Amino acid sequence: VFIAQSRASGSHRDVEDEELTRIFVMIPKSYTEEDLREKFKMYGDIEYCSIIKNKTTGESKGLGYVRYLKPSQAARAIEECDRSYRAILAEPKNKSSESFEHDYYSNNTRQESRGNTLPFCGQPEFCGFEKNESRIQESISKRLSVVSRLPLIQEQLFALFDLVPGLEYCDVQRDPHTNSGYAVIQYSTAASAIYAKYKLHGFEYPPGNRLTVIFLEDGSDSSE
């Protein structure tokens, strides 16, 4: 799925350069640009690869860019590459790259605060972050509660939460008095539920309506 460009927005290639062909990835600090190219060349024709380095020491920050010739190739790389790379579309070059890199890195380190409990943590290089104490104290379970100001549609909510592997069921309910939406979501593992909550709490669905996603007690031992 791509976002269509207005016909009045100028050169199509310029838009592709800025928004649709460049991906941003988290990589082991030992990777060279050749390693990065080798890992991602299977998804399409690469125009260039670059690794973000510390300006003072010259050491890799563990982040990099891969630019493809076509948007479809970048989309395929994001969809099919190993989850540990955390691949996303890069911000356009005319925006502040440093703030984008900082936000991306801090978001992903927060996500990894529980170490190897997340199934997407495929490589040990990505799991050495400090633990977030408030996250540890939160009651974790495989079951989530979803609250919305607007009614929820069963099929659409199922499709949304099914983006995270391990969805077991999605039960949508409606309050006849307030017309608000409520649903119970359950995953096969607590790790999937943690990831779904991280990605979808505050997500706007439909646009303008933020979902509230919290853990529900499911009787399991949260220390697992």
TrEMBL record:
GO molecular function per UniProt: RNA binding
Residues of the RRM domain: 21-95
Gene3D superfamilies the UniProt entry points to: 3.30.70.330
Domain of life (superkingdom): Eukaryota
Keywords from the UniProt entry: RNA-binding
Family annotation (PANTHER family): EUKARYOTIC TRANSLATION INITIATION FACTOR 3 SUBUNIT G (PTHR10352)
Record-given protein name: RBM45 protein
Claim: Transport is one of the keywords in the record: no
